[in-house]
Specification:
The chain is an all-alpha fold and 63 residues long. It has helices at residues 2-6, 16-32, 41-62.
């Protein structure tokens, strides 16, 4: 999973390189499933927020 691979790093949300990799990965996954390109950063910001929530939930469940 694209998100799971990138949010494994503790500081992923502070690192522009990891966020850029996540964004590219999301673009590829969306294109693979026939979604049109998304050119608005607000969409990716929302996805990053969901990824942070996903990470926090997963740590709470596993930890």
């Amino acid at each position: 999973m694209v998100v799971d691979d990138k949010v494994q790093y503790t500081d992923w949300s502070q690192r522009d390189d990891i966020k850029a990799e996540l964004k590219v990965g999301l673009i590829l996954v969306l294109a693979e499933h026939g979604y049109p390109p998304v050119d608005r950063d607000e969409v990716y910001k929302e996805i990053f927020e969901q990824a942070e929530n996903f990470k926090n939930y997963r740590v709470g469940v596993e930890g």
